[in-house]
Design a protein that fits this description.
- By secondary structure, the protein is an alpha/beta fold.
- It folds into 3 domains: about 350 residues, Glycosidases (TIM Barrel, Alpha-Beta Barrel), CATH 3.20.20.80; about 55 residues, Oligo-1,6-glucosidase, domain 2, CATH 3.90.400.10; about 90 residues, Sandwich (Immunoglobulin-like).
- The chain is about 30% helix and about 15% strand.
- The protein contains 19 helices and 24 strands.
- The strands form 7 sheets. Strands 15-14-13-7-4-3-17-16 form an 8-stranded parallel β-sheet.
- Strand 1 and strand 2 form a beta hairpin.
- Helix 13 packs parallel to helix 17 and helix 14 packs antiparallel against helix 15.
- The chain binds alpha-D-glucopyranose and calcium ion.
- Calcium ion binds next to loops.
- Alpha-D-glucopyranose (GLC) binds next to loops.
Amino acid sequence: MGSNFHHHPNGWVGKTPWWKDAVFYQVYPASFKDSNGDGWGDIPGLISKIDYLHQLGVDVVWLSPMFESPQKDMGYDISDYQAVYARYGSLEDVDQLVEVCHSRGMKLILDLVVNHTSDQHPWFKESRSSKTNPKRDWYLWKPPRYDSAGNRMPPTNWRGYFAGSTWTWDEQTQEYYLNLYGPFQPDLNWENAECRAAIYDNAMRFWLDRGIDGFRIDTVNKYSKRTDFPDAPITCPDALHQPAPEMWCNGPRIHEFIHEMQTQVLGPYNAVSVGELSNTPLPSQVFPYVSAAARELDMVFEFTMIRLGQGNMFHGKYIYDPFSLSSLKQHVATWQTFIEGTDGWHTVFCENHDNGRAVSRFGDDSTPELWEASAKTIALWQATLTGTLFLYQGQEIGMRNMPASWGIEEYKDVESLGFYNEVVESGDRKRVEATLHGLRILARDHSRLPFQWDDSPNSGFTEEGVDPWMRVHDQYRELNASEQLKNPDSVLGFYGKMLKLRKEYRDIFVHGTFKLLAPEDESLFMYVKESSVQVGLGSEGDRRKALVVMNFTNRAQKCPNVGNALGCRKGGEKLLVSTLRCEQVSPENDAELRPWEGRVYLNFDL
Ligand code: GLC
Ligand code: CA
């Protein structure tokens, strides 16, 4: 390939935007690398590891919020968009990070958190100071309701993300303000044009002018709420507050707002955008956001796959709900194919800072062998899917969930503790146990453990003797980057190899079409990827194909007939890669897939 031109699936030939082929890597600043021994990761620490990321094959760093913040939701509660949280560094450090990335041909995107601010943001302080303050309308204020007994009630019955109501009472002005997340995260009022203009200037242009390359856009579909503020239907009869996503997700003006953001800010800077699009499970709802013609977002994160295992989102989220391989495959197939033949684009990811570790959820980390095999198969799976690939820090070394023996005191996340305290208060012992079980698999805390760099005390994340902000995984001596860097057969070595292959065969892996095979099979995950480029002048048949076969079980499985699946003459298939260690690959074990083995075959010569 080598060129940056490719054939659009429906025949249109054009220049591929750089971000389609790029590999993005999310850095959670508190947990990546501490440079000054205070137990918190920081930007200088990140800068010291840019070469590690470069070597791995990362093109773009997405840095989670490093702005001034009271840190009640780890920086997703911003009190000053233009200042850097002192523990993370300074503006100069960000400037240097931009420079260090750019000098290696890499890019940097920041997190844009503009559905809400912190309650400590000066905008909110002004807004809450009086009903007549010019910024009163920058947030969503409503008078109380009263029940028949005269008790004060919130304006609606909506349940917020972190448990409790979406409304917080303000004594001083005797009104409620809306907060979809914590009470310390008041929602901005996007209906107010002056407020939107301030967001664009203050939170966006300021950073784009400093040279960053775009944004991951937090909670992107929640800016437009229903302005009649109706009660949600009662779907959880025993709960005080009701799930109400249809009241504040994908609201009436959402496409107008995002289009405005694109045309007024992102577009003029040529900035890349990836939006966090939760509660939007239908392709027909997602497509308008990512169609190039609509000029809204370049791509979004869609969550039905990563939500597997979660119970009811707004109440029983942490009551674990086991899922089958066929349902996982179905979700992947839906989202792999929904942009085929259109001008839309999509993302590929299986981890982020809001979820448990992929190897612990979708793989099998019950023994060292299965851990290694399944972490590699996850790498092979992700690297062969169509769309822009996002990795989360530590995924590339197969970092695992925290040990099951750790107690609730190791969980720091506001959401984990919100759900836990809620069930404890309910007094339902069974539900407390069930919630703890769910948290051990699904909690947002797992991915926030310090990065395991090496086998020195505190895993090389911070100095010996320092108390890191979250406890270091017990297993860091065996599972760390430095150990794996020495070994090309490690999980890290395998990620590096897969990222290279992904680029080399980008017409198949990044841009190809996807066809799921054996959808009902509960052991094997198999699909055929077909190149977006036609070779030679031949008919439709002249496209290069890859067959991906993965054993998603801990038992050996018979390998299906590869030639048939690829539609090539007998013996015409070539093994491109297997997750087995080199010395284990031989024609004799072709017929059988080992536990958690994954392979890719091609229908053409390498
Ligand atoms: C997004 C973030 C999450 C945060 C929430 C509120 O979902 O990913 O971490 O808690 O927004 O800003
Ligand atoms: Ca530090």
